[in-house]
Amino acid sequence: MKRRILLVDDEANVRKALSTSLRKAGYETKEAASGEEALAQLEEYQPQVMLLDLRMPQLDGMETLRRLKQRKGPAPSVVMMTAYGSANDVMEAMRLGAFDYVQKPFDLTQVKQVVAKAMQQPDSGEEDGSMHPSPEEKTDRPGFLVGLSPAMQEVYKLVGKVSMSRATVLIQGESGTGKELIARAIHTNSPRAEQPLIPVNCGAIPEKLLESELFGYEKGAFTGAVARKQGLFEAADGGTLFLDEVGELTPSLQVKLLRVLQERTIVRLGGVDPIPVDVRIIAATNRDLRERIRQELFREDLYYRLNVVPIQMPPLRERKEDIPLLIRHFLAKYGRETGKEGCYLSPASVEILHAYDWPGNVRQLENTIERAVVLASGPAILPEHVQAFLEELQAEPEAEKSGIRFEDRPMKDIIQEVEKEAITRALQREKGNRLRTAKRLGISRSALLYKMDMYEIDVSEE
C-alpha cells in the first residue's frame, strides 16, 4: 500500500526539505505550491496525509482546510504548519478537523513522528460530527489567549478537538493559570457559542445559597421564597455552565451534581417534578481530586463523570518562553487603560520577571504589570516598580491556593536572589562581557560591577 503525502507550501525550499526527509523515511510525496493547486490534485493523487502551510497568498491554509472538509468522499489527515500561529489558529484548525499542528522551524524528526501517527488514522472522510462545520459558524473570533509554548499548544489542540462535542471537560491546574479563559475558549468555539456561558465559583458561595442558585426554588420552599425562581442550570439551558473550584462542593451538592450529569434533569428546591436541561458542564479545580477521593472528601463516581476530557493547565514556571508574549500583552492592555501607551519594561525588569518563579502564575504576572504601569512616573518601568508589587504578593491568598509556599524569609532576600540570578543569566548570555551585559540590563557598567561584587558573582569573560 502506498503511503502518499501531499506537501502544500508556497516556499519551494520548505517543500523540498520535507519531501527529501519523508521520501527517505519510505513515503511517497507530491508537492503543491498553493491551496488551489492542492485541492485540484486531491482526486487524482489521493494522499493519506496532507502537510498544509497556514500562511499562503490567495487561498490560505485555513480556508483550504475548510473547503477540504466540505468535500464529499475520503479526505486526508491534515497536519497544519506555520511560523506565525496564534492560539486561535491552533484551536480553529483542530475544530475544523486538522489532525495536528506543528510550528516552523520544525524538527524533521518531530514531523515524521506526527506523520506516522496521522497515517494510522481511519478514513477521515467518515462522518464524526466535527469534520463538517456549518457555514454559519463563526471562524473569526477575537484572540484572547496568549502563549505559544509547546505546553500551551497542546492545550489549544485539546480545546479545538473538544469544542464541537458536548463532552464534559475537567480543567485542572494551579490558581491563576487561566482555567476560566480555557472554559470560555471551549464555549466560544462550540455550537453553543450564541447561548449563555454562566460561571459559578463553587468555593465562594455558602452551601445553601449555592444550592438555590444552581437549582432554583419553588414558591414557599423556605422562608423568604415568595416566588418561583429559576436556577443557573435552567438559565444556562442550551449553553454552558462553568463550575469553577468544583473540588470545594459539599458532599450533598456532589450527589445532586452527579444526578444532573447522569439524568440531564434538575429538581428545584421545594419541587418534585424533574426539569430537563440541555447544559454542557465544564468544571475546573486547583485541587488534587484523586487525593480528595482518598480522603473521602470527593466522590469517585462524580470525578469520572467530570473527567471525560481532562485538560491540564501548565504553571507559568513551566512555560517561561511565554513570559515575553504575556508581558507585551499586559503592557498594551494596561497602557491603553491608563493612558500610558508608550510604556515599556527596562531590560533589567524583563530579566527579573523572567527569573521569578510566579507561584501565582499568569494572574500574578498580570497584576504585577498592571501595578508597575500605574506606579511608573515615565514610560520606562524600572526594577523598583516591579519589585514593589512582588513584595506585596508574598502572602497573596491565590498563590497559597496553588500549593506552593513562599520561603519563610524576608521578601528582600527573595528579590535579591532573583536579581542575582537575572544578572548571572545576562552575563552568561553575553559571555561575561561587562559592557554588553550592562547595556542588556539597562544599567551602567559601574552599577553592574557593584552588583557583581555585592552578590559575589564570578563569570569570566570569554
From TrEMBL:
<keyword id="KW-0547">Nucleotide-binding</keyword>
<dbReference type="InterPro" id="IPR011006">
    <property type="entry name" value="CheY-like_superfamily"/>
</dbReference>
<keyword id="KW-0804">Transcription</keyword>
<keyword id="KW-0805">Transcription regulation</keyword>
<dbReference type="Pfam" id="PF25601">
    <property type="entry name" value="AAA_lid_14"/>
</dbReference>
<keyword id="KW-0238">DNA-binding</keyword>
<dbReference type="InterPro" id="IPR003593">
    <property type="entry name" value="AAA+_ATPase"/>
</dbReference>
<keyword id="KW-0067">ATP-binding</keyword>
<feature type="domain" description="Sigma-54 factor interaction">
    <location>
        <begin position="145"/>
        <end position="374"/>
    </location>
</feature>
<dbReference type="InterPro" id="IPR025662">
    <property type="entry name" value="Sigma_54_int_dom_ATP-bd_1"/>
</dbReference>
<dbReference type="InterPro" id="IPR025943">
    <property type="entry name" value="Sigma_54_int_dom_ATP-bd_2"/>
</dbReference>
<protein>
    <submittedName>
        <fullName>Sigma-54-dependent Fis family transcriptional regulator</fullName>
    </submittedName>
</protein>
<dbReference type="InterPro" id="IPR025944">
    <property type="entry name" value="Sigma_54_int_dom_CS"/>
</dbReference>
<dbReference type="InterPro" id="IPR002197">
    <property type="entry name" value="HTH_Fis"/>
</dbReference>
<dbReference type="InterPro" id="IPR002078">
    <property type="entry name" value="Sigma_54_int"/>
</dbReference>
<feature type="domain" description="Response regulatory">
    <location>
        <begin position="4"/>
        <end position="119"/>
    </location>
</feature>
<dbReference type="Pfam" id="PF00072">
    <property type="entry name" value="Response_reg"/>
</dbReference>
<dbReference type="InterPro" id="IPR058031">
    <property type="entry name" value="AAA_lid_NorR"/>
</dbReference>
<feature type="region of interest" description="Disordered">
    <location>
        <begin position="117"/>
        <end position="142"/>
    </location>
</feature>
<feature type="modified residue" description="4-aspartylphosphate">
    <location>
        <position position="53"/>
    </location>
</feature>
<dbReference type="InterPro" id="IPR001789">
    <property type="entry name" value="Sig_transdc_resp-reg_receiver"/>
</dbReference>
<dbReference type="InterPro" id="IPR027417">
    <property type="entry name" value="P-loop_NTPase"/>
</dbReference>
<dbReference type="InterPro" id="IPR009057">
    <property type="entry name" value="Homeodomain-like_sf"/>
</dbReference>
<keyword id="KW-0597">Phosphoprotein</keyword>
<dbReference type="Pfam" id="PF02954">
    <property type="entry name" value="HTH_8"/>
</dbReference>
<dbReference type="Pfam" id="PF00158">
    <property type="entry name" value="Sigma54_activat"/>
</dbReference>
